[in-house]
Write a structure and sequence with these properties.
The chain is an alpha/beta fold and 254 residues long. It has ten helices and ten strands. Helix 3 runs parallel beside helix 6. The longest helix is centred in the middle third of the chain and has 20 residues.
């Protein structure tokens, strides 16, 4: 059974058809990409899958269970986490607190447990802090744990956002333009990091990205959107050579 199965997905905003008949399958441990020109509908797909938008047509299944119509926090608890095109950290909180927020969806001590600080509350708080520090160490941010998140350099903020997403314990990680705003050395580090996340955390990774060197280097399969329509699906070599993709997005080779 696929980890994620999307069939014939579509959405309309008034009279505008933003996405039509979109399908995709993601198996455990796969690393796949969704590419296309600006306005093609890529982030719209992510918004439907994560419950921000309700689809006009089609279905989304996570491990065989329908999830369309669920709220974003419910979908996150079932195992889908995401980062955003524009970084959405809590810029005024510490680096550590940002990661701790990711563990909130798994809290079991309840409201009164927090009020009276039960033994269960104290155990859970200590466990989450230890796991958060471990994540920060993994992402090279342990020495910045007490710093304000908004003061981090851009590349480290990207890493922190991914660490927070992983704190929710996902089966699938959606990365929306993770290389945006990064310089070449940061992009090289990001490629290694994405492979590491897939292998170390055992998650399926689905990313939207405009940097074709990154996409072609690390992804096993690519889907290409143009004006809400799928125009190509395949491995990097076949997609890169597809005439429709060249015309719509990549441009004529030099």
């Amino acid at each position: 059974m696929p980890l994620l199965q999307i069939d014939n997905l579509g959405i309309h905003f008034g009279g505008l058809r933003a996405l039509n008949d979109f399908s995709l399958q993601l198996d455990p441990g796969e690393l796949v990409a969704l590419i296309g020109p600006n306005g093609a509908g890529k982030t719209t797909v992510f918004n439907i899958v994560t419950g921000v938008y309700a689809p006009s047509a089609g279905s989304v299944q996570l491990a065989g269970n329908n999830i369309e119509g669920l709220k974003p926090y419910q979908i996150n608890r079932l195992g889908i986490a995401r980062t955003f095109q524009n970084i959405r950290l809590f810029g005024g909180l510490s680096v550590l607190d940002n990661v701790l927020i990711g563990f909130n969806q798994s809290v079991t001590h309840g409201f009164w447990g927090a009020v009276v600080r039960t033994r269960h509350f104290q155990f859970e708080e200590a466990d989450h802090e230890a796991r958060a520090l471990e994540l920060l160490h993994t992402f090279g941010l342990a020495d910045r744990c007490d710093d304000i998140a908004g003061d981090l350099p851009y590349g480290q903020q990207r890493r922190l956002e991914i660490a927070r997403a992983l704190a929710t314990g996902p089966k699938i990680l959606l990365l929306d333009e993770p290389a945006a705003g990064m310089n070449p050395p940061e992009k090289a580090d990001l490629m290694q990091l994405i492979h590491f996340i897939r292998d170390q955390f055992g998650v399926g990774i689905w990313l939207i990205e405009h940097d074709m060197k990154l996409v072609m280097s690390i992804c096993q399969r690519i889907t290409v959107l143009d004006h809400g329509e799928t125009i190509a699906v395949g491995n990097p070599a076949s997609v890169q050579a597809d005439p429709k993709v060249i015309e719509a997005y990549l441009g004529e080779p030099a």
